[in-house]
Every structure is written in C-alpha cells, then in structure tokens.
Amino acid sequence: MRLLILNPESAGMEFRDPLLLRCGGAEKKASYIMPPIGLAYLASLFERNFEVEIADLSLQKKSISYLRGFDCVIVSAGLSSIKENLSLCRKIKTRRNVIGLCGITPASFPEEIMKKEKSIRFIIQNITPELSKLSEKNISSLDFSGIENISYRKNAKVIINSSAYLKSIDSLPSPKYDLLPSGYYDILAKGKNIAAIVTSLGCPFSCRFCSANNMRKYSEKSLKKLFSEIDELCMNHDDIIFWDDNFTANKKRCEKICDYLKTKKINFRCLSRADGIDYSLLKKMKEAGCYQIQFGIESGSERMLSLMNKRLNLSAAKDTLSACDRLGIETVAFFIIGYPGEKELDISKTKKFIMETTPDFISLNGYIKMPGSGGQPKKLSAFDNKNKSAEQVIRRIYQDYYFNLRYVFSRAGKLISNLDYAILFIKQNIQFWKMREGQLWRAITVKR
After folding, report:
1. Cut 0.85: pTM above it
2. Following CA atoms 352, 343, 363, 400 in sequence, which dihedral angle do they give, to the nearest 10 degrees?
3. CA–CA–CA angle 62, 30, 387 (5° rounding)
4. What is the pLDDT of residues 375-386, one digit of tens each?
C-alpha cells in the first residue's frame, strides 16, 4: 500500500514575512523553505508497513492526479494555513483513498476539524513509536482503534484514542532524510545545501505561551545516534540548523556536540535562550562553525515576562546579544506582541530593548491562542487564528527599527569589519528583494 506524507505549499501571499521584513511592509515571497523534519520522522515509523514517499509542495510541483494516486495521504496542516490545507484535502480525496492530518494544529483541535471536514478520516496527535503499528488493515477498514495518539472518525462520531508523551527521542528511528527533496534554502543561510536536525525534543522550561508544553516532555538524543545522523547529513549538506527548542539547555552536552561539529567543518545555526549561555560556550560554538543564534526574548517588559512565566533575565539577555556581536555570531531575536495583559508601556519597553541591543534581525509575532498556552478563553478554535490588533503594532516596530540610524550604523560597522560577512549580506539582500518583485520602493514609501 502506497502512503504519501504531504507538506502543502505555504499558504497565501497575504501573510507578512515573520523574519525578514527589513523595510517593514514587503509581502512575503518565501525567503526561506526549511526541511520538514517531523515528516521525515513519520516516514521512518511508517516504512515498515507501507511504501512511503514524502512530497513537499513548497519545492516540488505535483499534480492533483499524482496526489490522488496514493492509497493514503497524510497532510501536514499549519495554524495560519489550516483552511487552505483542508481545501487541498478535499481536492485530493477520492472514493478509494484515505486522508489524514498531522501537525500541532489538527492535534490540538481534532474533533472540530473532523466534524467540519468530512474528507479527513484520522489525525495524528503526537509522534511516538506506537504509530509504527499503523497498518494496511487500519487504512482499509477505517478502524484505528487501539493505536495510541490517533484520533479518527467512525460514522458521525469522532473518537480520540489515548495519548502519551514521547518519553525518549531515542525510541524513535532516525528520520528518513533521504526521502526529503533537495533544494531547501534560506537567504540567511551561509551554506548552499541546508539540512535540519534535532538533538533533543521539548524544553525544560514551561513558558505559558508555548503549546509545546502540552505536546511533549524534554528528551535528549544520545550523542552516538546524533553523531551518526550528523555524519549522514554532512555528506550532502554544508549548512545545518538545529531545530531544538533550546540547543544550549545542557551546557556540557552542547560543548561535546560542538567538539564533534568542529571536526566536520560545517556551518550551523540554532535556537537558544538568551540567558544561561556564557561567553565561553558562545566562543566554543563560534569555533565549531556557529554563525547565527535565534533567541526567544519574547518581551522587553519584566511584567510581561512574569505573566508569560518566561523567567528570562533581561540583563543577561543583553549581555548575550552583546557577546554574540563581539564574536561575530549573527543574532535573530523573537518577540510576542499582544499577549493577554500587555499594555502600551510594555510594548514601549519591548521596543526600547530592541533599539538598545540592535539584533541583526528581529521577528515579531502576534500572540495566538492554542491549547496548552496561557491566557486562553474558554473556547478555542482552529479557525480563529489571527491577532489583528497586533499586526499594526508589529509593522510599526519593524519600520522604526530597520530604518533606525543606530541599526543602520551597527550593520554597516559589521560589514566594514568583515568582508566575508559583507559579501554574504549583499547576496542576502539581492535575493530578498528579487523575491519581492520590485516592492522595494513601495516598502520605503509606505506610511509609518
């Protein structure tokens, strides 16, 4: 039986680029397409019982007739694109195939989604070894009873099977990297052939805005298994992003990983908290090939950080961003706008923090309510997924920051002092504006 794991094309051009709005208003045109590593993990679980393929419509052109040619299609659905994803499911559905969903959004709203969309027969709640029990018999009979972490529709009733956290990431087989298509890119990347990998799942912290707290526990991959996967990726890639929620959570372990990466001579990026990471570790990461770290700051207001249960030391975060500057590590800082309880003064403090620390790039995101995250109303919906009140604030901060002379001079200083970085930065901007189809002038002249 043929099973397709499908990553749909990113939804609609109306969305704003969350990372690279250098001129605060240019419409999104896929400045990065990253490998869907979760789908590679699913493929590794299903390959025993099915003939598995992965298709990524962000990179590949596949006709509807091709997609209909599989006995089962599992579609990855996202929060911002759930309506478009379900529309694609309706187009793919035939009398002879079975359509399922995966992703944090369908896993959070299985009953609502399956009652609304009749083409969906089952939803994967979480990736655990139990999913390897899924068989041809389940697909043929439409009976998924007894399989942990799957919800399914039986006649008019939605049945939610028992769910469980993934206790150990090592209990999963290594992801099927070879099934992912080639050609993933990011205009911020230093290398040309990008790969993604996780060394751990979950996070030892419990921020209220993060729905991941409701989906998985923190678990580290054994170094032996990790190094084997790194070896595999290094054969065909020159740039790796570590998709851990917090790559530096375990300092000693991070140091061992850096020691190994240094022998591979590969460029890499990662995500980290901005406190609890000292200069010596940053220096070791830089020497191992780290050229960019993405930090979840979330707010420049101590009051908001307390409401979020973020427990971030803003003074230490400033020191970390400064240390990265001195070492030549590019920084991306993430912030949440519109978290419940936020006031104008809190937004001003966030803006002040950004202006004072001058990260290389900022990513501002409106708070979206999800099961397991804080500040929720009693009833949540998969289809109420925008924070319109935050959009204007976000656009204003983007514009004020990227046109600010302090930021301009900060970037100029880095370019002058590092020729290699200057060449990379120029290439990034050329690619960025080529993808915006001549919108540079509109972005510059847009009212702020």
Report:
1. yes
2. -50
3. 110
4. 554 455 666 656
d(CA 88, CA 73): 11
DSSP letter string, 63-114: -HHHHTTSSEEEEE--STTHHHHHHHHHHH--SS-EEEEESHHHHHSHHHHH
Residues 216 and 149 reside in one and the same domain: no
Q: Are strands 51-56 and 120-124 parallel, antiparallel or unpaired?
A: unpaired
Mean pLDDT of all residues belonging to the chain: 86
Q: CATH no. for residue 71?
A: 3.40.50.2300
259, 384: one domain: yes
Contact 262, 233 (CB under 8 A): no
Q: How many helices, marked H, and strands, marked E, lie in the chain?
A: 16, 17
- Strand, helix or coil for residue 294: strand
Buried b (16+ CB within 10 A) or exposed e, 258-284: beebeeeebbbbbbbbbbbbeeebbbb
Our count of domains for the chain comes to 2
Instruction: Find the distance separating the first CA and the last CA of the chain, reported in whole Å.
Output: 56
Q: Does residue 129 lie in a domain region?
A: yes
**Could you tell me which of 218, 349, 359 has the C-alpha nearest to residue 294?**
359
Q: Which residues contact 378 (CB under 8 A, 6 or more apart)?
A: none
Please tell me the predicted confidence (pLDDT) of residue 75.
Answer: 97
Cα separation, 373 vs 367, in Å, equals 10
242 burial class (0-12, 13-18, 19+ CB within 10 angstroms)? buried
